[in-house]
Write a structure and sequence with these properties.
mainly alpha, 3 helices
């Protein structure tokens, strides 16, 4: 069979009035309707999921915002005076400053001792350099 014969057979098949099987058009219509309803359900469920994500993200943002607000609010609660009598406060401040002074003096003493050691090392190093230059 060549191409011309095939074309003739196809043309004859298309021209002839062929009967469809019984109930085929009804089954096709039902299938098409089912596909359409499935597609609509899929679109609706997708929209519902998207709206749930949106609502969830807004709720989470609100929770984070409220938590931050209360953390900041608790941090800036007005400070109370620890002493109701100003004389007691002055005595406590003097004691704290005396302790600070004592600790600072200890540190300064250690620094001066270290400075003396550095000076001794410099004197020894200078003597050695002068002895090397003299040779």
């Amino acid at each position: 069979m060549n191409d011309k014969d095939l074309d003739k057979l196809i043309q004859e098949a298309l021209r002839s009035d062929q009967e469809l099987p019984e109930g085929l058009s009804g089954r096709l219509a039902c299938s098409i309707e089912q596909w359409a309803t499935d597609e609509k359900k899929h679109i609706v469920s997708h929209r519902k999921k998207r709206s749930l994500y949106w609502i969830g993200s807004v709720a989470a943002s609100l929770i984070v915002g409220v938590a931050i607000f209360f953390q900041v609010e608790n941090r800036y609660v007005g400070s109370k005076d620890t002493f109701s009598d100003p004389r007691e406060a002055a005595v406590a401040a003097q004691n704290a400053l005396a302790l600070l002074s004592t600790q600072l003096n200890k540190g300064l003493n250690q620094v001066s001792i270290a400075g003396e050691e550095v000076n001794k090392a410099n004197v020894i190093a200078d003597k050695q350099f002068k002895a090397l230059k003299a040779q």
